[in-house]
Amino acid sequence: MGKVVAVLCSPEENDSSSRIADAFLDGAMGLSTNIIDFYKLSKLRSIQDCCCKPAPVAEKRMIYDDVLPILEDIKTCDCVVFATPIYFEGPCGLYKIFEDRMSYFLDENDESTLAPGKKALLILTSYYPDVDFAGLSGYLSKNLEKIGFEMMGIITYSSHMGKEPLEKNTFVLHKAKEMGLTMRNTPTV
Fold it and tell me: Around Cβ 95, how many Cβ atoms within 10 Å?
């Protein structure tokens, strides 16, 4: 049995980044015994940013709000799916706040405290076709690796200003589901 945590950052309901994450989770679940925990950040009542400065003890950086249970859940999972739309050439604000809060996983020497082998899938979507997905995914992947994740993949998608809806782009949804299939029966960390 494996455990997957999905962190959906879009403020919109049923957006493309969430639907791609759903395809991944569908593949991961199937008939397996995987456990999937699903978090939509826009539904949280309280989410605060932090200063992200190194601290001698992780608890000194701890903020007691609705994000803390997600961070605790990430400690015990095998894989985290991060799904965010791109706004103004960067991830949406909810993703950025969550990324800052993951400094909780860095010790006083700026080293990760996460168990080795924790995987991450990054899903980036945009309405606009001219987004620098390569540059942005490289930057965000580097941050996730610093926090202690092993990148299992990156999925990018643009609707080209609504001209290429996700429903017609079966390749992206199929790729997400195929990646999810690799999580079936992953041993828990």
Answer: 25
